Amino acid sequence: MKIMLKANLVLVALFLLGMLAGNSLLAASAGSLLVIKLLKTPFLLEVAERHALEWGLLFLLIAVMVPLARDKIGGKEIIQSFVTPVGLLSLLGGTIATYLCGQGVGLLQERPEVMAGLVVGTVIGVTFLKGIPVGPLAAAGLTAILLRLFELVKK
Fold first, then answer.
1. How many helices (H) and strands (E) does the chain have?
2. What is the pTM of this model?
């Protein structure tokens, strides 16, 4: 009972942080999980734990590819992405970001406790640095790289 109360308090705190920081995605996520917990539907938590990341990535990829589907990006723009400096840098940026997000997934699977720091860090970045909450995978990926650097320096 004590552990469940603590988890509920953490979700309430994250919900309030999201509301105060104007991060509707954080507030909606924490609020949804709190409702699922309070309704005592653990199977929904299991479904979310097993599939939510893939669903989120699916919708993110759909959002990124909408310009292709709406014919806003055509063959000319795709070819330019391979031959101009901006295009080449965007390819490099996309490759590095994808690698970082992959590292983030691994870190979150190995050490899920880092999520609390990522969420609070995201709220701080949004609130005080006027950042945009692009998601915990990129932050987790950067954290994974920073952890590796820290471990190398520590040795």
1. 7, 0
2. 0.64
